[in-house]
Amino acid sequence: MLAKAINCSFIDADDYHSYANKEKMKNGIPLTDIDRLPWLETLRDTLRMSQVNGQTIILGCSALKRSYRDILRSADPNCESGSPGCAVKFVLLDVGAEVLAARLDKRAANGNHFMPAKLLQSQLNLLQIDDSEGVLKVDATLDPQIIVTNIQDLIL
């Protein structure tokens, strides 16, 4: 919805996971930093190409750790972590674990996701957000259109 509202492309980072990573998650095995690194580098390169081509992209991604976000930020060669001038911005869709689990179960039941909800806690355990980093937070329990408007107000 956000990509449509600001007339740009949307990329779901999950589409960029390797077959091996998807199989691990499907089988309830959490990914390691080593598993994630090629995925993050591919996403970074995709962001870099969009920037070179003057395109804006909305990337839906579970960049849980600051180190993961720093890899994605490096798509902008002029970016310093947390810098307001960085072309790569992060918005945390802030919501409780119960709501996330319900949404993940619904996506999996509809055949739209490969990760079982039982892996969610392992991801939440990795989540690191430091206020100095400049990650914007939006209440993701609101109506989707309100979420989109709130994000637009923060980033535009």
Automatic annotation (TrEMBL):
The keyword Translocase does not apply. It is an enzyme of class 2 (transferase). Its EC number is 2.7.1.12. One of its GO terms (molecular function) is gluconokinase activity. InterPro entries: P-loop_NTPase (IPR027417), Therm_gnt_kin (IPR006001). One of its GO terms (biological process) is carbohydrate metabolic process. The keyword DNA-binding does not apply. Belongs to the gluconokinase GntK/GntV family. This is Gluconokinase.
